[in-house]
Design goal:
215 residues; single chain
């Protein structure tokens, strides 16, 4: 038993390294373009080693997207634990996505929907839950801080905002270039906040917009 534990631990470390490297390459090169051969070569292992932990590329895509989702979720929790006002918090959360996908050429969600629809569906379900919880909390905070109007209907607004954000990935009307997608997400965020903000909230919005334009 004492000999087995280090082996199990080592296997877990190797598996995590594979997931991390695969996630990095999928985001940079694309889910379709990054092959199992590419990932094995980058890690300095045989392709047989990859298949020891993942029976096929789809399983590795599943694992890597779940890991990215968990990383984003943890980062959002950290942001929400800071003493940000509601508008500032929204921009801090958006900055997480901007940093996470800064090397991606094409929208990861667009790629998943096109090439790995089952993975996309599972990820979208997790994203919906995270998105909803995050935004309900933000709306309540904004109302309490006098940044959002007291009469807003939280459930309806979350659905509106969610439809706008995910519409960027669903519709053929928009580019799937990641830099353009991120710009559109900032435009949607501005649209969302202007729709619900008080005069005080608009002033904070203008401050945040100025900050991101300076950076």
């Amino acid at each position: 038993m004492f000999l087995e534990f280090p082996v199990v631990l080592l296997q877990a470390i190797v598996k995590d390294k594979i997931i991390d490297k695969a996630g990095e390459m999928f985001l940079t090169l694309g889910f379709k373009s990054a092959t199992m051969d590419d990932i094995a070569k980058e890690l300095g292992v045989s392709k047989k080693t990859l298949y020891k932990y993942f029976p096929n590329k789809t399983a590795l895509v599943d694992a890597s997207t779940e890991a990215v989702h968990n990383t984003i979720s943890e980062a959002i929790d950290k942001v929400k634990s800071q003493n940000y006002n509601a508008v500032e918090e929204e921009f801090a959360v958006k900055a997480i996505f901007k940093e996470m996908f800064k090397n991606a050429k094409t929208s990861p969600m667009y790629q998943l929907k096109k090439y790995y629809p089952e993975t996309y569906t599972k990820l979208a379900e997790r994203e919906v839950c995270m998105f909803r919880d995050c935004n309900i909390d933000n709306l309540e905070k904004g109302v309490n801080q006098g940044l959002y109007r007291a009469e807003i209907k939280s459930d309806l607004l979350v659905n509106f905002y969610f439809t706008l954000v995910f519409g960027v990935f669903e519709s053929e009307l928009y580019s799937n270039d990641m830099q353009e997608v991120m710009q559109m997400e900032y435009e949607i965020l501005e649209y969302h906040i202007r729709a619900i903000a008080t005069e005080k909230g608009v002033k904070e919005l203008e401050k945040q917009l100025k900050n991101i334009n300076l950076n």
